């Protein structure tokens, strides 16, 4: 598989994860977090690093449908090689090693990550999320710590096109009351490592009350996956908060654009209304 899409072992783990034993889940998580360890070491060495037996590593491979460790390792090596090749074109230094300005190198790297994620988003799931948000009577959005800016932007963008969106603020909503009336509610959860307990508790309560839940996260097996009706894992080539933001904002822009296309008249009227309100506030009309 090429370097612009998520490798098969990622997808196989996501599909099988819920049915794995505790020990096999430990192996799966390690593979997702440290694929280089599997690419460079024997099954015995990987097992020693994890504190499990070599036979458990082999059993993990068989459970995912591989003939053995060698077949999995070959796939992981291909994946690691593709990532390495990409990063050879991306140097985090001030030197113009490849003829490109530094800012262009960074932005091209973001483009690669956005492309990688876009190819792994299901069109059916995307359309489902657009429908949930378009038809919602109320939308609650939660993103804490470094995902707060993402949640804030999405709230503003949805309000600007006529969606009744509300941003969860832990400092103001300590005793958040979930509505009980028969309305269509959607909860959008931004949940990235280290997975805020507060957001997960909100998701659990929303699930109990029959709300639709859209999860935006960094892994198909992240804790929010247990609550989300529609899950969007954001894949990126190296795990860092800085790399996550451009991908997520690009996806959010696509989501808001999808709603705008679905409801063009409502979008036009609300943008006009918001602009008139802004002008009145600016010029005290």
From TrEMBL:
Keyword Transcription on entry: yes
Q: Which UniProt keywords apply?
A: DNA-binding, Transcription, Transcription regulation
Q: Which domain of life is it from?
A: Bacteria
Which residue intervals define the domain SIS in the entry? 129-264
Protein name (Swiss-Prot/TrEMBL): Transcriptional regulator
Q: Which InterPro entries would you find in this protein's record?
A: Homeodomain-like_sf (IPR009057), HTH_RpiR (IPR000281), RpiR-like (IPR047640), RpiR-like_SIS (IPR035472), SIS_dom (IPR001347), SIS_dom_sf (IPR046348), WH-like_DNA-bd_sf (IPR036388)
Mention one GO biological process in which this protein takes part, according to its record.
carbohydrate derivative metabolic process
CDD domains documented for this protein = SIS_RpiR (cd05013)
Originating species: Virgibacillus phasianinus
MF (Gene Ontology)? carbohydrate derivative binding; DNA binding; DNA-binding transcription factor activity
Q: List the SUPFAM superfamilies hit by this protein, alphabetically.
A: Homeodomain-like (SSF46689), SIS domain (SSF53697)
> Domain HTH rpiR-type: where?
7-83
